[in-house]
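pipeline/complex-builder :: batch 7 item 3
reading input block
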Amino acid sequence: MSAEIICIGTELLLGEILNANAQYLAQQLADLGIPHYYQSVVGDNIPRIHQVLTVACARSQLLIFTGGLGPTPDDLTTEAIAQFFQTPLEENAEVLADITEKFARRGRPMAPSNRKQALIPAGANVLPNPRGSAPGMIWQPRPNVTILTFPGVPKEMHAMWQETAVPFLRSQGWGKTTIYSQVLRFWGIPESTLAEKVSPLLNLENPTVAPYAGNGEVRLRISAKAATESAALDLITPVAQQIRDIAGDNYFGQDDDTLASVTGNLLKAAQQTVSVAESCTGGGLGQLWTTVPGSSAYFWGGVISYDNQVKVNLLGVNPEDLQREGAVSDGVAQQMAVGVRDRLNTTWGLSITGVAGPDGGTEAKPVGLVYIGVAGPDTVESFRFLFGVFQEREFIRWLSACSAIDLLRRKLIAQ
Amino acid sequence: MSAEIICIGTELLLGEILNANAQYLAQQLADLGIPHYYQSVVGDNIPRIHQVLTVACARSQLLIFTGGLGPTPDDLTTEAIAQFFQTPLEENAEVLADITEKFARRGRPMAPSNRKQALIPAGANVLPNPRGSAPGMIWQPRPNVTILTFPGVPKEMHAMWQETAVPFLRSQGWGKTTIYSQVLRFWGIPESTLAEKVSPLLNLENPTVAPYAGNGEVRLRISAKAATESAALDLITPVAQQIRDIAGDNYFGQDDDTLASVTGNLLKAAQQTVSVAESCTGGGLGQLWTTVPGSSAYFWGGVISYDNQVKVNLLGVNPEDLQREGAVSDGVAQQMAVGVRDRLNTTWGLSITGVAGPDGGTEAKPVGLVYIGVAGPDTVESFRFLFGVFQEREFIRWLSACSAIDLLRRKLIAQ
């Protein structure tokens, strides 16, 4: 038994989007241990979809389609598949009711074209879409051919895959070995440095250890192949412990942990609170804290002091210091942090002031220069970062926000 | 004449990497106006590469391969192609000399396996690789089949494409037309509704009009095929105008425009300023405004009033109203907007208060309920949104921030 991924969409053929769906499904199939030898991409065109189906049915038994399930006339996947297997489309009453209800709940009129999304081939099962209006299908139109269809919207596809497709595939006896992975996450250490420190572990065979870097963060993925999840964990756990010992405080969490969630948990444990004063990040630090549900327990808010007058009026920054040292300086970062801590009456105040670019840099204060202030219960410090070398505005802002949270994380650990 | 992209590499089938090469080549083919209807991905395996070749030769005339040109035993692309066309491999003296020299210049010993990279099928031409050791080939093994091969390393592939493949393709008389596209962007109208309103235009042949949706925004891509860019624009412009007329204020910009950049330009033109008061978005609205370089001209800052006490202390929200109506209410949204406008002394104050979830929803105030306040020079209004039906926390927050900017955009247009 082998699977084939078939992505449908003219936008892929025009190079407008990256085929992230193919990568997601490929990883998922690898994790399930389902062999997968071919991927195809084809446009929203019935004869060409038929061409791909002819080829795929001759070499693969599980055909996984993404894309082309929307309401518009160029969404042709369901129709093309039904035609290929000479099966009529039928309106599914449950799906229609579900779509109608979803539109009603949003208080939006349902266009007649949305009705098309309730059509599935006679004999096919619905693959429910909890995140959107277009469901997919699970269909065995002939022996040795199983078809799964998904919309192209990644978050809808992921939810449908996890909630329905994986249990279905397992129920068919496919995907019996388990590849279980744990991702260890690090901040404040370059990928090459970490890779060197753990280099003997990178040659292990089971579990394997592979480094990834992205978005300023470094990750190590530990993957073990075993008959059960607990057997896989027995292989992973000692290796993970070794790595954490080597990495020290640069290790901040695993799997779904984020800097904000981990640091938030430290604040909760210490029954402490934090507020923010932001200049170049313009709200991005507060936004990052509040990605964590329940963050209101320790994150109280802050002041976005993008304009200098706001730094003075709402945070109490000394206008003479502003004038003399400039907004991007140790002194202003410290006054912002103290100002927000005192005005919001929190344990900690974090501030960010910097040059995010692309314009506004000078020789003395180049793009990428950022000061982060950390005011504690009775201390205040500031830290200078230079992120700019090849970085863009949004990445500098992102690194600034993450670094501010990371600084507090290290303070809380040392506390 | 049509092209097919064939990417070879087991790492693609394992989902270890995104297929960025396919996107690059697809964009390049679109820009050259070379039709391209299929893409395939296959592993480093000779029989399966032959399977893909059989299919591709029957439906496409230009086959573009990436990957599998390296020195290791699993790099099989050249060998597989030569075998398929029953042609012997020959060692190319020039290539061998080039590889030998590249290793010498880097002061590295050349492994015997690198010698393999000098083999090409008899009768094929070398496609030189100025950035790496593995060259590709240009080969017409039979009438109506042209093969180009590239290594999988993106920067090597890009250089080879630009420097050799494009001139070759043009010399064959391919790639004479230009496909030029314009993307029109909309907010506040569902994809299906917009598609119905412009439905006659969706059947045009040149230019074509195709709808896309994502992240709460709807886009229409108008693509024209013509001999020159200006001829393409002549085809696009009247269709774009028709669409803008139909869409009215739901149209907000084109190509790289964003809600924040367009609304920022309106503020600049009116010499007006804006500040924000944010509860559930936690800073995301300010962050969005400040994605635009130069936004300090009109965005002055704001208050992140995540905790209710901050709404009272820093924004002047009446604690009794907070108690009676709750933080998520029309009244509090309006008081937050007025409070921030007055304290920051800006023309406009925008506020957001809502239930972003996943917890904290009640029957009366479910997850996804968001109030947006808009305080103008001497007015204040609030708007109720219900985003929650199948949405996640981060998406509700994103929609809230975008909707706030969109509300101000409409006010400024009407002004």
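note: Chain A has a mean pLDDT of 93.
queue -> next item
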